[in-house]
């Protein structure tokens, strides 16, 4: 059976990630957990950005929905099942995304970006101000949860994160990837790309542009919340800083770094950014400057991102014209 | 089959944590290798100034210790990572503990980060000493009996001390009270503590307005206008970031600082920005655990202050003392445990056991560690004066109090304790 | 009554500063369709540099009476960063507007560490020299003359900008370029120079705002990223691309914030977001914005 290059990439990537804990020091294994969270969130984000052409600068709010949702479901309500939490935060994100999406769908480009930034900061202020509900600056505790019903009591949290939870998150990423692949290659996905390329033409062709954009927005929110739940589990706390606008900027950074025109781009971006930030922070206290410079260089020089660049090189290698 | 995969994974992950406890391999190699201490402090944003104070103080202390042979004969090496958001700080902490394999982690200024990191430190079984950020966290202490974590004095100590000094010096001299505090848990708890102490002493008072500016906001003119309109006899404020000198300036420009009693428990964090021209005399001003110009300070403290002034052209505030207390008590604990073992390098558990009850002379005065791993330190507050050679205010008359009188005992509830404790004023 | 007057005065002062930054944003957006996330960074740069400039002027013995014009000069001097940054933004001009937004975000990140590197972790401020202009009081109401002067300066700049854009040839060229770049180019306009000048003007408005506000406030590390939110709220409420929108939006945000602090302290920050949402529900393009497809 002949498999597409994408399938090979996916299999190779999954195998590499699966082998990681045996090869790499334990700290880096732990570092992968936020990567999984961001990767899943970014798969959703890129549906909105890469495939539909809508740049949201408030996407971190859905990470927050995931983390705070986990805190409420597992902490306040005591349902310590990660699967229930995932389901709950995804539903919650869809419910929250619907009205916001309805409001924002009329806008494109910059306007959409600014609106989403405003909503993201509104959520941040809400989390900060309504401290009786949300814990304010202290946040809400996200307790340890059962995965697949198993408690793993013999593992302390460090071991749990580097062991069973790591593979659980890898599985979640694979599932999220498969789901997103199906979405992107379905008629729905094609509609999105048409809308991105020429919304007016799509409208003439009878496509309900706003409805499709709204759907993409809601789906991206759902993926974002799933990623947020993973982050919440790892940190053990849901705090308002997860939702600050510069965190949304960081998500966009990751997508662009990896390459938003490529399916795997967001995942590559999340991985690269996570490792980059880690190495830079140990290197210098001026790591923000270096990251900013890297972002500028990518935007100016390599806008197709790392995955895009790799794909171009791969294509040239295979003798096809770029 | 050999090692089961579960056990392999468990041990692979746990290697990082286990090595910190000074497990099987530690003693033999230990004494010839440097002792690694990890620092986690803010280096950007609103908390960068205190973070930098703490880092510098630790570096100074480590340099001095190393000149005299280090800690327990081992030279100390600092590994500095940045404290930022809870998520990123937990990652940096993990790096210090698992990758850098530090023997101790010290730092933390933000209470939110401290709350998130606490369980992580316990899970990682890594000795961690917080500089700051201990909150009441609602009514119940979320971590009543940590083993590996040592935390600072309560955030509310300075508010309690200011409240007691207010009662002592200004009882009967004010009725209407206004508050302007940063809108987060620290500000809220401080204001509530002040009112609770007033109530406990039966001081008649009426709160005419409570302002809650967003943390770090620079435009406080509306808040000042609201305060002016309320005409309070006394203003209580735990503002402590860059907004503090801004408030003082704007309040002075609006004529608010004349004739109003001012109680500012945390003003010492920005003390060099509290310029004489807009900061009045006779204001109750808190320097927390380090008053840099304390005439009764130890020679060590005086040496530190003059070194800081010469090297950094600045005067240190209390985060420097918190950092010094952390590294100095760590040194004392290690050396005490070593002595108890007849000169052999102590395990982490030995060090932890030695820290409890330990008393150390910190830069701002005496400091010690309670059984519940909360610190006790000396707090200094007083009334501002312009009679000095600086362009900012210092203290004229002042008092120092040990925190045993200022923070709730182990296991107690903060608000209950205020109502029933025996205060000595 | 005087309490109310104090509050309004404070709100208008804040609005004046907001207007300057928003005007810079609107100008750049109107002509170049770039939304500058680094507007807060320019604001902070103006604040930090203003402190250094005035300190230096004091050392040279310049009269403290010149503090207001001195701060304006310091803001204008910083205009030198305009052309190189615009040049950098120009490299992505032809592409999707998201790229420009991202590039300005990269600037935000870089500026954060520049501030820390150059000016350190401690907040910085000026002393109370600005009070040399005196204070106007009437009973319980008081306002430093400096604050009044800043408000007047903002009004003057608003009028000047308006007159410039409507009345002068150059202003007309700017507006034409904003409307239809291709046509302007075809008619012989040197669009590149226009863009450079407009961006620099926008930057100068931001840096001057920061410089003007610094005597009453302070310069600190996070002020850049905090300020962006308010500036964006002003621009969304007023309508992207509209100068009148900048004025209206600034007044609304400044006054509502001031009033809510005093009368509805629970809301404060949320009040601004609520207005943003209300405007979006009732008049999506903002008060003075133009409809976008």
Which helices and strands, and how do they pair?
The complex is a heterotrimer of chains A (322), B (425) and C (293).
Chain A: H1 5-23, H2 26-51, H3 60-76, H4 82-104, H5 109-129, H6 131-134, E1 140-141, H7 157-162, H8 164-185, H9 187-197, H10 199-204, H11 209-235, E2 237-238, H12 245-258, H13 265-283, H14 287-301, H15 305-317
Helix pairs in contact in A: 2-8, 2-11, 2-12, 2-13, 3-4, 3-11, 4-11, 8-9, 9-11, 12-13, 12-15
Chain B: H1 5-20, H2 26-30, E1 35-41, H3 48-67, E2 76-82, H4 86-99, E3 104-107, H5 111-124, E4 128-130, E5 149-150, H6 157-170, E6 176-180, H7 185-200, E7 206-211, H8 221-230, E8 234-236, H9 243-253, E9 261-264, E10 284-286, H10 299-312, H11 318-340, H12 348-355, E11 359-362, E12 365-369, E13 375-385, E14 394-402, H13 414-420
Parallel strand pairs in B: 1-2, 1-3, 3-4, 4-5, 6-7, 6-8, 8-9, 9-10
Antiparallel strand pairs in B: 10-13, 11-12, 12-13, 13-14
Chain C: H1 2-32, H2 39-59, H3 67-77, H4 82-90, H5 97-119, E1 135-138, E2 141-144, H6 145-167, H7 169-179, H8 181-186, H9 191-213, H10 223-238, H11 243-263, H12 269-282
Antiparallel strand pairs in C: 1-2
Helix pairs in contact in C: 1-6, 1-9, 1-10, 1-11, 2-3, 2-5, 2-9, 2-10, 3-9, 4-9, 6-7, 10-11, 10-12, 11-12
List keywords for this structure.
heterotrimer; A: 322 residues; mainly alpha; two-stranded antiparallel sheet; 15 helices; 2 strands; globular; C: 293 residues; ABC transporter involved in vitamin B12 uptake, BtuC; two-stranded antiparallel ribbon; 12 helices; 3% strand
Task: Please describe what this structure looks like.
- The complex is a heterotrimer of chains A (322), B (425) and C (293).
- Chain A is an all-alpha fold and 322 residues long.
- Chain A has 15 helices and two strands.
- In chain A, helix 8 (164-185) packs across helix 9 (187-197).
- Chain B has helices at 5-20, 26-30, 48-67, 86-99, 111-124, 157-170, 185-200, 221-230, 243-253, 299-312, 318-340, 348-355, 414-420, and strands at residues 35-41, 76-82, 104-107, 128-130, 149-150, 176-180, 206-211, 234-236, 261-264, 284-286, 359-362, 365-369, 375-385, 394-402.
- In chain B, the strands form two sheets. In chain B, strands 6, 7, 8, 9, 10, 11, 12, 13 and 14 form a nine-stranded mixed β-sheet that branches.
- In chain B, helix 3 runs parallel beside helix 11 and helix 6 runs parallel beside helix 7.
- Chain C is globular.
- Chain C has a single domain, classed as ABC transporter involved in vitamin B12 uptake, BtuC (Orthogonal Bundle).
- By secondary structure, chain C is an all-alpha fold.
- Chain C has twelve helices and two strands.
- The model of chain C has no long low-confidence stretch (mean pLDDT 88).
- In chain C, 71% of the residues lie in helices and 3% in strands.
- The A-C interface holds A 49, 53, 55, 57, 103, 106-111, 113-115, 117-118, 121-122, 125-126, 129, 200, 245-246, 249, 252-253, 256, 285-289, 291-293, 295-296, 299-300, 303 and C 29, 33, 35, 37, 88, 91-92, 95-99, 101-103, 105-114, 116-117, 225, 228-229, 232-233, 235-236, 240, 266, 269-270, 273, 276-277, 280-281, 284, 292-293.
């Amino acid at each position: 059976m002949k498999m597409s290059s994408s399938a090979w990439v996916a299999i190779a990537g999954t195998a590499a990630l699966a082998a990681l804990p045996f090869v790499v020091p334990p700290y880096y294994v732990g570092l992968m957990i936020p990567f999984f969270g961001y990767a899943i969130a970014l798969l959703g984000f890129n549906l909105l950005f890469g495939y539909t052409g809508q740049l949201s600068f408030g996407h971190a709010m859905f990470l927050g929905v995931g983390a705070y949702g986990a805190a409420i479901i597992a902490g306040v309500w005591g349902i310590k099942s990660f699967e229930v939490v995932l389901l709950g935060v995804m539903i919650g994100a869809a419910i929250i995304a619907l009205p916001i999406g309805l409001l924002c769908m009329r806008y494109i480009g910059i306007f959409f970006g600014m609106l989403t930034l405003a909503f993201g900061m509104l959520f941040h202020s809400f989390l900060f101000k309504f401290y009786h509900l949300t814990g304010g600056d202290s946040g809400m505790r996200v307790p340890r949860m059962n995965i697949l019903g198993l408690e793993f009591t013999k593992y302390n949290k460090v071991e749990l994160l580097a062991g069973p939870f790591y593979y659980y998150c890898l599985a979640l990423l694979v599932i999220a990837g498969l789901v997103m692949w199906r979405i992107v290659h379905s008629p729905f996905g094609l509609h999105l790309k048409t809308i991105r390329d020429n919304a007016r033409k799509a409208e003439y062709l009878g496509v309900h542009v706003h409805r499709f954009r709204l759907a993409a927005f809601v789906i991206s929110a759902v993926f974002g919340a799933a990623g947020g739940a993973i982050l919440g589990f790892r940190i053990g706390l849901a705090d308002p800083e997860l939702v600050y606008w510069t965190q949304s900027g960081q998500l966009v950074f990751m997508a662009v770094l990896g390459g938003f025109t490529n399916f795997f781009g967001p995942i590559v971006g999340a991985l690269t950014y996570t490792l980059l930030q880690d190495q830079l922070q140990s290197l210098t206290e001026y790591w923000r400057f270096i990251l900013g410079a890297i972002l500028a260089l990518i935007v100016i020089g390599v806008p197709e991102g790392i995955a895009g660049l790799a794909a171009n090189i791969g294509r040239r290698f295979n003798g096809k014209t770029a | 089959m050999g090692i089961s995969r579960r056990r392999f994974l468990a041990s692979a992950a746990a290697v990082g944590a286990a090595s910190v406890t000074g497990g099987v391999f530690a003693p033999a190699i230990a004494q010839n290798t440097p002792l690694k201490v990890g620092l986690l402090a803010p280096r950007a944003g609103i908390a960068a100034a205190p973070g930098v104070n703490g880092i510098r103080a630790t570096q100074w202390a480590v340099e001095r210790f190393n000149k005299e042979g280090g800690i327990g004969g081992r030279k100390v090496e600092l590994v500095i990572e940045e404290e930022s958001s809870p998520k990123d700080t937990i990652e940096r902490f993990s790096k210090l503990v698992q990758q850098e394999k530090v023997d101790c982690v010290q730092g933390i200024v933000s209470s939110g980060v401290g709350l998130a990191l606490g369980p992580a430190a316990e899970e990682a079984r890594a000795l961690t000493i917080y500089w700051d950020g201990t909150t009441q966290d609602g009514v119940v202490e979320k971590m009543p009996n940590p083993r590996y974590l040592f935390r600072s004095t309560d955030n509310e100590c300075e508010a309690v001390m200011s409240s007691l000094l207010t009662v002592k010096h200004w009882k009967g001299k004010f009725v209407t009270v206004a508050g302007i505090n940063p809108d987060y848990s620290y500000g809220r708890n401080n204001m509530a503590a002040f009112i609770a102490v007033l109530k406990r002493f039966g001081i008649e008072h009426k709160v005419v307005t409570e302002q809650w500016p967003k943390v770090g906001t620079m435009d406080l003119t509306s808040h000042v206008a609201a305060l002016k309109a309320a005409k309070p006899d006394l203003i209580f404020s735990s503002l402590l970031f860059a907004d503090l000198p801004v408030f003082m300036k704007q309040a002075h420009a609006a004529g608010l600082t004349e004739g109003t009693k001012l109680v500012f428990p945390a003003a010492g964090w920005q003390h060099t920005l509290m310029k004489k021209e807009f900061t009045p005399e006779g204001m109750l001003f808190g320097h927390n655990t380090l008053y840099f110009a304390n005439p009764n300070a130890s020679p060590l403290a005086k040496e530190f202050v003059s070194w800081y002034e010469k090297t950094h052209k600045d005067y240190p505030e209390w985060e420097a003392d918190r950092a010094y207390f952390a590294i100095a008590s760590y040194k004392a604990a290690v050396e005490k445990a070593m002595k108890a073992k007849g000169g052999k390098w102590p395990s982490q558990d030995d060090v932890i056991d030695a820290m409890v009850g330990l008393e150390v002379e910190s830069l701002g005065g005496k400091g010690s560690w309670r059984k519940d791993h909360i610190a006790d330190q000396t707090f200094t507050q007083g009334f501002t004066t312009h009679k000095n050679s600086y362009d900012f205010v210092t203290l004229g008359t002042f008092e120092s109090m040990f925190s045993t009188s200022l923070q709730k005992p182990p296991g107690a509830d903060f608000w209950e304790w205020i109502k029933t404790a025996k205060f000595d004023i | 009554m005087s309490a109310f007057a104090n509050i309004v005065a404070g709100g208008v002062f804040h609005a004046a500063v907001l207007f300057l930054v928003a005007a810079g944003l609107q100008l750049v957006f109107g002509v170049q369709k770039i939304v500058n996330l680094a507007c807060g960074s320019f604001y902070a740069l103006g604040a930090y540099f203003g402190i250094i400039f005035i300190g230096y002027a004091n050392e040279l013995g310049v009269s403290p009476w010149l503090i207001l014009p001195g701060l304006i000069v310091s803001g204008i001097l910083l205009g030198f960063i305009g052309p190189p940054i615009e040049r950098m933004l120009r490299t992505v001009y032809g592409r999707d507007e998201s790229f420009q937004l991202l590039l300005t975000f990269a600037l935000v990140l870089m500026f954060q560490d520049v501030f820390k590197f150059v000016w350190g972790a401690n907040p910085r401020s000026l002393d109370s020299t600005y009070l040399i202009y005196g204070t106007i009081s009437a009973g319980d109401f008081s306002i430093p003359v400096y604050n009044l002067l800043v408000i007047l300066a903002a009004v003057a700049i608003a009028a000047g900008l308006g007159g410039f854009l409507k009345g002068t040839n150059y202003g007309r060229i700017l507006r034409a370029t904003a409307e239809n770049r291709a046509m302007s180019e075809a008619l012989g306009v040197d669009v590149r120079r226009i863009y450079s000048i407009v961006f620099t003007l926008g930057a100068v408005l931001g840096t001057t705002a920061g410089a003007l506000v610094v005597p009453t406030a302070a310069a600190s590390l996070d002020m850049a990223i905090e300020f962006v939110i308010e500036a964006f709220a002003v621009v969304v409420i007023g309508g992207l691309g509209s100068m009148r929108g900048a004025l209206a939006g600034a007044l609304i945000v400044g006054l509502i914030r001031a009033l809510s602090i005093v009368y509805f302290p629970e809301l404060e920050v949320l009040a601004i977001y609520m207005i943003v949402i209300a405007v979006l529900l009732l008049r999506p393009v903002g008060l003075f914005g133009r409809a976008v497809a």
